[in-house]
Amino acid sequence: MMGAGALLLLGFVCLCSSAVTAEEEASEAYATPAFCRHYECPKYKTVKQYETFEKRLYEQSRWVTTQLELDFFGLGIYKSFRRLFDYINGQNSEGITIKMAVPVRIYVPLINPSDKNATMSFFVPSTLSTPPQPLRADVYLENIPPMYVYVKSFGGFAVKSDFEKKSKFLSEELNGLRLPFDDTFGAAAAYNDPLTLFNRHNEVWYNAL
């Protein structure tokens, strides 16, 4: 089950698309999924479509990440988001602004979880060939190798309990089908700002083994 405090973010996170881009043109060879709208998102292909979820193969990707401290009031969520947003708005080694991409991703450990070992990440657009280094010690870049992921998607204005429920359903489905997956952590992804009223897209992830 996802961490309660962290997933609260995913119902109201603002994607702040006003950031100015300092990037190269994107490749036209890849058809961006409709749910990403006008944002860039990680490239993947669907390996297998199940009845209620899918298995994706993601290409190598880069993320900018910071620790997420879970708390009842959501102050940790705001602080983590602010640190990452400051990075894309010029608080980096090059002083450049970077266009917002999607999703905003949260990883929550499921084995020995605590209120201080979750993380929040922004996807770094692939069109930025060399991302600038963060200026803060508590913000860092991650290179994620290609990976297989089980993904359950759902719509609507999702709140904490929705993400927890979908994550639980996905793990039960994977266990029922005897599909091996990493149950030591779960992930949730937000793709929309609060002003998007229709065709909203939310996801929960488990890494396939």
Radius of gyration: 16 Å
Mean pLDDT: 86
Number of domains: 1
**pLDDT below 50 for ≥5 consecutive residues: which ranges?**
1-14, 17-27
> SS-based structural class?
alpha+beta
Q: What is the CATH H-level superfamily? A: Regulatory factor, effector binding domain
Succession of helices and strands = HEEEHEEEEHEE
The largest pleated sheet is described as:
9 strands, antiparallel
Please count the beta strands (DSSP E, at least 2 residues each).
9
CATH topology: Multidrug-efflux Transporter 1 Regulator Bmrr, Chain A
Query: CATH class, please?
Result: Alpha Beta
Give me the oligomer status.
single chain
The total count of helices amounts to 3
How does this model look, in words?
The protein is of the alpha+beta class and 209 residues long. It has one domain: Regulatory factor, effector binding domain (Multidrug-efflux Transporter 1 Regulator Bmrr, Chain A, Alpha-Beta Barrel). The chain has a 9-stranded antiparallel sheet. A hairpin with a 4-residue loop joins strand 1 and strand 2. It is globular and about 50 Å long. The protein starts with a helix and ends with a strand. The N terminus is likely disordered.
